[in-house]
Design a protein that fits this description.
The protein is α+β, with helices and mostly antiparallel strands. The protein has two domains: 83 residues; 109 residues, Trafficking protein particle complex subunit 3 (Muramoyl-pentapeptide Carboxypeptidase, domain 2). The chain contains five helices and six strands. 41% of the residues are buried.
Length: 215
């Protein structure tokens, strides 16, 4: 697995630091060190990125970390782990959303729950695009919202037979729990992935909750 950083695309230091801290809380320090070694990222051992929003972590490093989950835990374990880590990453990193989080909360106080969730997703997509080189767009149809990962750090330079963006699934689940109704759960499913040869990654978010209708 290459550690080259030819993309010129970067993720904020704080977000990768939070991912690593969240991972450490789940698998322990030795588990994180093993993942970093497996991903060719040993330079991050006891040297997590600084706690700031500077764009300094190459996309290649994010994707290498995600691939290390797959290599260590297998597809099923990696999916479950990445979702759990993503949710914790969102919850632990909520403060880094700052004014975007406040704006999303304000928007999600008005109208139906469906409209509030749609506005919240739009706010967060805009925020991701502003503070990282990740490019996200949100569309919707009658039954679902679609989170389009047009430039994705999670699978950058990787190839796979199945989606690799389960960290984003966990982040979206964490966002829905925080900004929608914590008593409702929504099916969040990756349906396309750049690593699979698709032009963009796409994550589907059902408008109807698993525990009752959203509207």
């Amino acid at each position: 697995m290459s550690s080259d950083t030819e993309s010129g695309l970067y993720y904020p230091n704080r977000w990768v630091r939070i991912i690593l801290i969240a991972t450490e809380e789940i698998v322990g320090k030795n588990g994180v060190n093993a993942l970093l070694n497996m991903g060719g990222l040993s330079h991050y051992i006891d040297n997590y990125p600084p706690d700031n929003m500077k764009k300094e972590v190459p996309f290649e490093h994010v994707s290498q970390l995600q691939q290390a989950y797959w290599d260590m835990y297998g597809p099923r374990g990696a999916r479950a782990f990445a979702i759990r880590s993503g949710k914790k990453t969102f919850n632990d990193g909520l403060d880094s959303f700052g004014t975007a989080a406040k704006a999303a909360r304000m928007a999600m106080k008005i109208g139906t729950l469906e409209k509030r969730i749609g506005l919240g997703l739009q706010f967060f997509a805009k925020f991701f695009n502003q503070v990282s080189d990740q490019q996200v767009a949100v569309t919707e149809n009658e039954n679902e919202y679609l989170w389009h990962l047009q430039v994705c750090p999670m699978c950058y330079g990787e190839e796979s037979d199945s989606p690799l963006c389960y960290l984003a699934v966990g982040v979206l689940q964490g966002a829905l729990e925080n900004f929608a109704d914590p008593k409702k759960h929504y099916r969040v499913t990756p349906i396309k992935c750049i690593a699979m040869g698709d032009e963009e990654g796409v994550i589907s978010i059902d408008k109807d909750s698993i525990l009752g209708e959203l509207r």
